[in-house]
Amino acid sequence: MSLEYINPPELGVPSGFSHATVGTGRTVFLAGQTALDASGVIVGDDVVEQFEKALGNLLVALAAAGGTPDHLASLTIYIVDMADYRKNSRAIGAVWRRLIGDNYPAMAGIGVSRLWDAEALVEVQGLASLPPVASTLGEGRTHPHV
């Protein structure tokens, strides 16, 4: 699996995202995650705490699919209060670097009036590109769909 980050000079230098990401391998579609805990309750008193929980939830789903943060190709962040999110962007960036590192996939931040759970301040949805599964076709086995 490899990801190539594309940042054409005509679009300006991105900060905290890449303009495009090209991946090879298996695609994992990651459902939107909010700051829900295992009991189904939104946790976190502010956007930074909720972003950390939502991103952490997304990474749990990615890990369950066999991926790691460096496999993230695209991320969309749905934000209820854009001014508050921007005001806390440094703290949110620190959460990102702690959980993801210095890799920035193609990203979008979208302001919304509310999310499914009224208490949710942020939701994170993504795509990942994982390495291809090793083929066993040459080892006397057949593909289950052939």
Summarize the structure.
By secondary structure, this protein is an alpha+beta fold. Helix content is 24%, strand content 28%.
Structural features, described:
There is one protein chain. The chain has 146 residues and is of the alpha+beta class. Helix content is 24%, strand content 28%. The protein has helices at residues 47-64, 82-87, 89-99, and strands spanning 2-6, 20-24, 26-33, 72-79, 106-111, 122-130. Strands 3-6-4-5 form a four-stranded mixed beta sheet. Helix 1 (47-64) packs parallel to helix 3. Residues 140-146 have low confidence and may be disordered.
Q: Give the helix/strand class.
A: alpha+beta
Main beta sheet strand tally, sense and closure: 4 strands, mixed
**What helical percentage do the residues reach?**
10-25%
Q: What average pLDDT do the residues reach?
A: 88
Instruction: Spell out the helices and strands N to C.
Output: EEEHEHHEE
Task: List its salient traits.
two-stranded antiparallel sheet; 146 residues; disordered C terminus; alpha+beta; 3 helices
